[in-house]
Design goal:
310 residues, alpha/beta, five-stranded mixed sheet, 11 helices, 9 strands
Length: 310
């Protein structure tokens, strides 16, 4: 019997899925093991606890695993890659397939096949696979440079539009809600906090923006709508790149299906609805999968099949 381990370590949590050739055997969720999000000691503790819990649940030694696939954000950052390779080698000592978190989500949706995956959680990224197996991406440049439609975007953009509303003399209770969330006494303290170094975790403000939008705040509603339309724009860029890649090889171009992943698209309906509305305005016939994909199952699928060939 061969055993395989898939790990989704893209954001503020990590999820581990152990399986054999055909079945899922145990699943464990822990804190992050991504070194851009935590220190080495915490990451090591989270990893150790996850592997220990998998063994306790199944009786399977982690040293008997044949291959492990881990999908993570920052897969091109040496701090992330080097630590993961060293840590997994210490604890497992097996073949490791290290890819981006959006790629394992893509595999979860399309099992190595053609399609577009839009991921928006703490951060965001969009990836697609063409008919020839090539993977292309858009966005994913981090919280300062990109992360459209993500939790980080919603929090940061909520603040920006909240302050713009002051200049526009538009009503909004976004800034009061953020002050309450951060336990700040004045607008001046909010300005200082938002511009501090290192910056605060703006993704923690996403629920505040979502709550204000649900209560009818027009400024907050515009933030959610913008997040969805920005993600649709990135997806459109990839669809057109697929069109070019497949030109003269498949006859009439067939639109790839679109799948979603990540906590924002899973739980924040206005962002998801704006995304779908914007995509359908450009591609009326596009197939849009409503149910979010399960990235750990994509990591397990990749662990079973080995590295993709591109």
């Amino acid at each position: 019997m061969s055993y395989f381990l898939g790990i989704d370590a893209g954001g503020t949590k990590s999820e581990f899925l152990l399986g054999d050739e055909t079945r899922e055997l145990a699943r464990v969720r822990k804190g992050t093991i991504q070194r851009l999000r935590t220190d080495a000691r915490t990451a090591e503790t989270n990893l150790e606890e996850a592997l220990r819990d998998l063994t306790a649940a199944t009786g399977i030694s982690m040293r008997s695993i044949e291959r492990c696939c881990i999908g993570t954000s920052g897969e091109t950052v040496p701090l992330v890659v080097d630590w993961l390779r060293e840590a997994l080698d210490r604890h497992l000592g097996v073949e490791l397939v290290l890819v981006g978190d959006v790629e394992v989500a893509l595999d979860s949706a399309f099992r190595g096949g053609r399609g577009v995956l839009i991921l928006a959680g703490t951060g965001s990224n969009v990836a697609a696979r063409a008919a020839d197996g090539s993977i292309i991406t858009a966005g994913g440049w981090g919280p300062i440079l990109a992360d459209q439609g993500s939790g980080n975007f919603l929090g940061r953009e909520g603040l920006r539009r909240g302050f713009l509303a002051i200049d526009q003399q538009r009503p909004t209770w976004l800034l009061d809600a953020v002050r309450s969330h951060w336990h700040l006494a004045s607008l001046g303290e909010l300005i200082e906090r938002a511009n501090s170094t290192p910056p605060p975790d703006f993704s923690q403000l996403a629920p505040v923006v979502v709550d204000c939008a649900a209560k009818g705040d027009a400024v907050a509603q515009e933030v959610l709508s913008q997040g969805g339309s920005d993600l649709a724009y990135l997806a459109g860029l990839l669809i057109e790149r697929i069109r070019k890649i497949e030109a003269n090889t498949r006859g009439q171009f067939e639109l790839p299906a679109v799948a979603i992943a990540g906590s924002i698209l899973a739980h924040v309906a206005p962002v998801r609805e704006s995304l779908e509305r914007s995509l359908r305005a450009r591609y009326p016939e596009i197939v849009f999968e409503q149910a979010p994909v399960d990235p750990p199952s994509g990591a397990l699928w990749r662990a079973r099949h080995g590295p993709s060939t591109r």
